[in-house]
């Protein structure tokens, strides 16, 4: 068992098989040494976390939604890394979007749910730059969406 697999097991995280894209795009594109992973929403096999942070979801639920996006990003990274997350050299940047109410402004704290997971699982390779944006609506009513730019050795195209 690798260190990354051990950290996932310690957290009780089982990476899902990523679903096929729901529209006219691909899950990831590798070019110029970087892999661009399409936005991953706060979904899982039982449906996921939908709603509006600051309206019908509290901040803890928002962080859980962001963490779920991180799980889905790791699943996409595993596919791009040909099954071996040890090939992830660096998470370069995350772009985070939180569906939030008009009076909610602690958006960076919500995205920490994703950032903290990536750093815990990948160590220093998981440290990244990030943007955190509050939006009126996200696809299918999901609470959070996060995309990523990642450096992966031997990434699949």
Could you please describe the fold and organization of this structure?
- There is one protein chain.
- Strand 3 (88-99), helix 3 (107-122) and strand 4 form a beta-alpha-beta unit.
- The protein has helices at 3-11, 59-80, 107-122; strands spanning 28-31, 34-41, 88-99, 129-135, 144-152.
- With 157 residues, the protein is an alpha+beta fold.
- The mean pLDDT is 95.
- Helix 2 (59-80) packs across helix 3.
- It has a five-stranded mixed beta sheet.
State the helix count: 3
Distance between the termini: 26 Å
Overall pLDDT metric: 95
Spatial strand arrangement across the major sheet: 1-2-5-3-4
Rg estimate, integer Å: 15 Å
Q: Could you give the count of β-strands?
A: 5
H-E string:
HEEHEHEE
Percent of residues in helical segments?
25-40%
Biggest pleated-sheet summary: 5 strands, mixed
């Amino acid at each position: 068992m690798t260190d990354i697999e051990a950290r996932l097991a310690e957290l009780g995280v089982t990476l899902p098989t990523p679903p096929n894209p729901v529209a006219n795009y691909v899950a990831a594109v590798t070019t110029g040494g970087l892999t661009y992973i399409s936005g991953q929403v706060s979904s899982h096999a039982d449906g996921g976390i939908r709603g509006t942070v600051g309206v019908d979801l509290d901040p803890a639920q928002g962080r859980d939604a962001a963490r779920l996006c991180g799980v889905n990003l790791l699943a996409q990274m595993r596919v791009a890394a040909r099954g071996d997350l040890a090939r992830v050299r660096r998470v370069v940047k995350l772009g985070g979007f939180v569906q939030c109410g008009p009076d909610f402004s602690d958006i960076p704290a919500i995205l920490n749910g994703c950032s903290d997971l990536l750093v815990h699982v990948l160590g220093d390779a998981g440290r990244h730059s990030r943007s955190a944006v509050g939006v009126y609506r996200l696809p299918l009513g999901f609470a959070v969406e996060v995309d990523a730019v990642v450096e992966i050795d031997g990434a699949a195209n």
